[in-house]
TrEMBL record:
InterPro entries: Catalase, Catalase_AS, Catalase_clade2, Catalase_clade2_helical, Catalase_core, Catalase_haem_BS, Catalase_immune_responsive, Catalase_large_C. Its EC number is 1.11.1.6. The keyword 4Fe-4S does not apply. It comes from Actinomadura yumaensis. The keyword Iron applies. Gene3D superfamilies: 1.20.1370.20, 3.40.50.880, Catalase core domain. PROSITE patterns: CATALASE_1, CATALASE_2, CATALASE_3. Residues 1-21 have a biased composition (Basic and acidic residues). Belongs to the catalase family. HPII subfamily. This is Catalase. It holds the Pfam family Catalase-rel.
Amino acid sequence: MPDPTARDDAKQRQLDRHRIGPEGANLTTDQGVQVDDTDNSLSVGERGPTLLEDFHFREKITHFDHERIPERVVHARGAGAYGHFQPYDASLAEFTAARFLTDPSVSTPVFVRFSTVAGSRGSADTVRDVRGFATKFYTDQGNFDLVGNNMPVFFIQDGIKFPDFVHAVKPEPDSEIPQAQSAHDTLWDFVRLQPETTHMMMWLMSDRALPRSYAMMQGFGVHTFRLVNAEGRGTFVKFHWKPKLGTHSMDWDETQKVAGKDPDFNRRVLWDSIEAGLYPEWELGVQLVPEEDEHAFDFDLLDPTKIIPEEQVPVRPVGRMVLDRNPDNFFAETEQVAFHTANVVPGIDFTNDPLLQARLFSYLDTQLIRLGGPNFTQLPVNRPVAPVRNHHRDGYHQSDIHTAKSAYHKNALSGGCPAVVSEGAFKHYQERIDGNAIRKRSASFADHYGQATLFWNSMADWEKEHIVAAFRFELGKCTDMGVREGVVANLANVDHGLATQVAEGVGVTPPDPVPGAGHDRSSPALSQANAPRDSIEGRKVAVLVADGVDSGAVAAIGDALVDGGAIPELLAAKDGYVQADDGGRVEVTRALSTMSSVLYDAVVVPGGARNAQALKADGLAVHYVAEAYKHGKPIGLLDAGIELLNRAGITEVRTAESGTLTDRGVVTRRGAGGDFAGALVEALAAHRHWNRDRDAVVA
């Protein structure tokens, strides 16, 4: 039986060959000449001109001047990690010849890059945006790139519109404003004139655009691909990544504040989680559609603005992916990794999805200029673990040394090598295609509103409130009233109530109902209200402490959180330690002023009369509680610590008179009764508690 770690080890050895560490090394030039001074240029005397013959100075400055490569046009802001994928069993073998999906004894190394779409490399992580979810599988049959997003649909149906969409969402060309935001005239002008964007805009205005972390984010292949088995039989497939921790999001007000407090929030959480051994994990699933059922739906399978509802075609679990190693160098790996939708292996093929067809050209084209020529596949992060043998030669950055006399096919001088093969080779799916060359879209792509309504109908009440608020915020930033009116009129085709609520918030006349618009179908799988809520792994909890804190309570709370995989941090007015009620010391993790409640998933105030008195008098500590409440986060308060609720202006919550009580995600305990720690963990696992009057609290 093959060693499950063999493929992972092969990729690691490949990377190790290119790794250069600082240990025990002397400084040299690029030619290996040792250097004795890199702080002073060679000059004529101490105050004279610098000499051109200073080759070390010239080399150092020249290399610095050329350090930057073009950033990605889209998905410029990203973070990545290594890991492995392993299928559960061989049950997919009847559908595909791809061994990495069908051999449970094989562990396939992966590199995953998460990203935002619209912003530049220097933008913030937590903006309202689609997130890229791109996975490179280093399989023994070659590299397979599943280049997807955290939303299952896209803005446009045909790739010829992609430049128009990106130009519209990017900063406006006259002012280069706004950065990494869709809340401006050009994007919404594009949207109002392109009804096919409607379904995707519903997703973008939902909380799916504000993921709590990459580990709590779904991923989708977006397009309908095709699996091909050993006999050449095809099956349509859509790929899904489902996070082990469930799909959870942040609050819009919260994300804006996080962008200022820690613009690296999502990438920092990913890095810190892996370093702490809290490895992010996803399950790969597939929706399979027999070819004979291609036209069995009320939408076109080739339309990238449509989903296959899970109630119609369930997602079939295939395998498990775990990310367990951070890159050693961001530029060399995360920045230079090159994904391409055309990187497929035997057993996976394309369909005629017009957006996918465009991507098959665009990705390679952009990598050629971004990475400086056709040899970018030789970079360690891009290089397959499968052997690479072909007649490609020369070009920028050629690092292979080819020793064969011939570089053409057919040849006799090199023994006919490398030779073409029949067994194990990639074979394109054979599909008969007939038709005239025309510029016309199929009528089966024409329904732009049905699935947008399906999405709206599937949302919980609090999700609908957030969607309405998002539309109001975004359109409220548009200066052209015609843009606002056009978008609202378009929304009337989705749901008249939605359009009316948005219109009332952006100062335009609510539209009349559209005859025949809307339906009552829904899909529970689309609502985050139905996401798993049984884990607190990776959640960060702020425990507010001051002199006189109950050290026993601090220890008990900390133990319960750590046992569940959460990360408690003790915050005080100043760094160092505080004096506990028993005379001992409680070490402080950070000072309150260096952090913010928006960087935590919950806030806890332990007991102790002096502790509570000091925290009540600290406006920043009170703000932590008020702001956490406003953002729907769990709050835990013990004994005298409960007094911070009133100081924070939170009056609608019932608190315990004795024992432990949970109301609207606020856990309180007076005295010794009840399982406070258990109730806190349960409230934290629920993620957010939206059944609050959050406007009643000024934070």
